[in-house]
Amino acid sequence: MVIITKVLDDEVNARLSGSISNAIVEKINGVKVKGLTHAYELLYPKNMPEYVIIELKNGERPLIFEGKAMEAANKRISIPEVFLAVDAILNIYMNVASRLVV
């Protein structure tokens, strides 16, 4: 199961309406998503399709992104995304370390 936990600010998703945080991803380009690795493979194919269509469970309508715009956004977001991941890991470490008794 893949759940959208956060949508990073970028022009490619600026027109998304409503909240999609905590939404379950059901399909990407018509393919049922099996897990996080599978979703990654579908979102980062060798040949990007003209459009990337993401269907959410109980979603009113699919999320549709232009493939070229999504590729460009992935390049813009990748570096900040790494910093967010490191920050999250450090927060987890701090929570664990604060409970250690030495």
Could you describe the 3D structure shown?
The protein starts with a strand and ends in a 5-residue tail after the last helix. The mean pLDDT is 83. Strands 1, 2, 3, 4 and 5 form a five-stranded antiparallel β-sheet that branches. The protein is α+β, with helices and mostly antiparallel strands and 102 residues long. It has helices spanning 36-43, 67-97, and strands at residues 2-4, 23-28, 31-32, 51-56, 63-66. The longest helix has 31 residues, at 67-97.
What would the keywords be for this entry?
102 residues; alpha+beta
- How many strand segments? 5
Overall mean confidence score, pLDDT: 83
Radius of gyration of CA atoms, rounded to a whole number: 16 Å
What structural class results from the helix and strand content?
alpha+beta
Q: Quick one: biggest sheet?
A: 5 strands, antiparallel
Helix content: 25-40%
Low-confidence stretches: none
| Form type | elongated
Order of helices and strands: EEEHEEH
